[in-house]
């Protein structure tokens, strides 16, 4: 009976160690070179001057590196470093600081994402490569 | 206004390039577009090693950097273009886990690699999906319908705007257009 308890304990420890190991090597990690893109739909007409003002404001935010505002479509986009910037917080601050109360972050529905450009698909080999990159 | 004019010129050159492709180039997909051994990739800076502004301490080929810069700006232009941004909404999908690579990273990498290889790069490879199968609703059930010419032209136009902004000469923009329209048949399917 004692042996069964010892073996069970060792097995349990082994499983726990394996689970921790799997989590450590597969957990999402931030890559310093990685960039994300966020989009703000302004839902109101703007001109070139307002577009320049929005560009300047967004460019000042920490972690934001490129900004583009299209006055014709009233859409602003920016790229950011996921390590240092939280796009949700930036857009909240944007609404609070500038007179664009109707502005909202555009997030596509999952069906929309599935129908999107297939060029983001990465082959299995890339997945393995990314996994190995995490390991070493 | 000056930028708008140059963009229009670029668009006209792209349209001219389309006609040239249709009338001159047979339906092959040879990459490179070399003239006398010099590829389009060489014209964009080729294999000259330069420091990579996006990866501190690393180098990148100038040709690749040129293409990547144009692609990255084009992706931003496209996202503000309501005519076609629906196709690319995945780029702004929330990345709640902040995991790398992001959807934007993947799109940028695949587009850049695809164009670099098509332009004649030898040190990079494209490992993304096959364009024809990916844009065919019969093989890719996620595609709601076939991409039409108007959408492809708008995509080319946005890429031309980016190339203009980058400062490529009209001749190089025209070559870029020729390169792009070689693959129109794989994206726009009957």
Write a structural description.
The complex is a heterodimer of chains A (136) and B (190). By secondary structure, chain A is an alpha+beta fold. Chain A has helices spanning 2-26, 48-59, 87-97, 110-114, 124-135, and strands at 36-41, 64-70, 75-80, 104-105. Chain A has a 4-stranded antiparallel β-sheet with strand order 2-3-1-4, covered by helices on one side. In chain A, a hairpin with a 4-residue loop joins strand 2 (64-70) and strand 3. In chain A, 25% of the residues are buried. The mean pLDDT of chain A is 84. By secondary structure, chain B is mainly alpha-helical. In chain B, 53% of the residues lie in helices and 3% in strands. Chain B contains 8 helices and 2 strands; from the N terminus they run ααββαααααα. Chain B has helices at 2-24, 40-43, 62-79, 103-119, 131-134, 149-166, 170-181, 184-187, and strands spanning 49-51, 59-61. Chain B has a two-stranded antiparallel ribbon with strand order 1-2. In chain B, strand 1 (49-51) and strand 2 (59-61) form a beta hairpin. In chain B, helix 3 packs across helix 4 and helix 6 (149-166) runs antiparallel to helix 7 (170-181). The longest helix of chain B has 23 residues, at 2-24. Chain B is globular and about 40 Å long. At the A-B interface, strand 1, strand 2, strand 3, helix 4 and helix 5 of A face helix 3 and helix 4 of B.
Brief sketch in words of this structure:
The complex is a heterodimer of chains A (136) and B (190). Chain A is of the alpha+beta class.
Contiguous runs where pLDDT drops below 50 for at least 5 residues of chain A = none
Nearest-integer average pLDDT of chain B: 82
Briefly note the structural class of the backbone of chain A: alpha+beta
Strand content of chain B: under 5%
- Count of alpha and pi helical runs of chain B: 8
Estimated radius of gyration of chain B: 16 Å
Shape of chain B: globular
- Strand order of the main beta sheet of chain A, please? 2-3-1-4
Work out the helicity level of chain A: 40-55%
How many individual helices of chain A? 5
Q: Tally of extended strands of chain B?
A: 2
Distance between the termini of chain B: 38 Å
Strand order of the largest sheet of chain B: 1-2
* End-to-end CA span of chain A: 43 Å
Helices and strands of chain B, in order, run as HHEEHHHHHH
């Amino acid at each position: 009976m004692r042996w069964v308890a010892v073996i069970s304990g060792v097995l349990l420890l082994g499983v726990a160690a394996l689970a921790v190991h799997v989590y450590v090597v597969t957990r999402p990690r931030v890559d310093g070179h990685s960039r994300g893109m966020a989009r703000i739909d302004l839902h109101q007409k703007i001109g070139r001057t307002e577009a320049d003002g929005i560009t300047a404001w967004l460019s000042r935010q920490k972690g934001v590196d490129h900004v583009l505002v299209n006055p014709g479509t009233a859409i602003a986009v920016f790229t950011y470093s996921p390590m240092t910037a939280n796009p949700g917080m930036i857009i909240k601050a944007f609404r609070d600081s500038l007179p664009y109360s109707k502005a909202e972050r555009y997030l596509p529905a999952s069906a929309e994402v599935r129908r999107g450009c297939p060029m983001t698909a990465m082959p299995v080999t890339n997945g393995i490569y990314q996994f190995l990159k995490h390991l070493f | 206004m000056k930028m708008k004019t140059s963009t229009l010129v670029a668009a006209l050159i792209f349209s001219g390039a389309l006609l040239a492709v249709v009338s001159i180039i047979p339906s092959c997909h040879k990459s490179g577009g070399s003239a006398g051994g010099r590829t389009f990739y060489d014209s964009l800076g080729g294999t000259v090693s330069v420091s990579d502004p996006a990866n501190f301490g690393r180098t990148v080929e100038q040709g690749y950097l040129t293409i990547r810069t144009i692609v990255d700006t084009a992706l931003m232009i496209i996202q503000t273009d309501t005519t076609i941004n629906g196709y690319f909404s995945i780029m702004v999908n929330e990345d709640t886990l902040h995991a790398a690579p992001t959807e934007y990273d993947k799109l940028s990498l695949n587009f850049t690699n695809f164009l670099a290889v098509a332009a004649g790069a030898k040190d990079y490879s494209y490992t993304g999906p096959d364009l024809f199968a990916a844009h065919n609703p019969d093989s890719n059930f996620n595609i709601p319908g076939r991409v039409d010419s108007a959408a492809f032209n708008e995509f080319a136009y946005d890429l031309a705007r980016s190339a203009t902004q980058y400062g490529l000469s009209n001749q190089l923009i025209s070559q870029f257009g020729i390169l792009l329209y070689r693959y129109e048949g794989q994206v726009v399917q009957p």
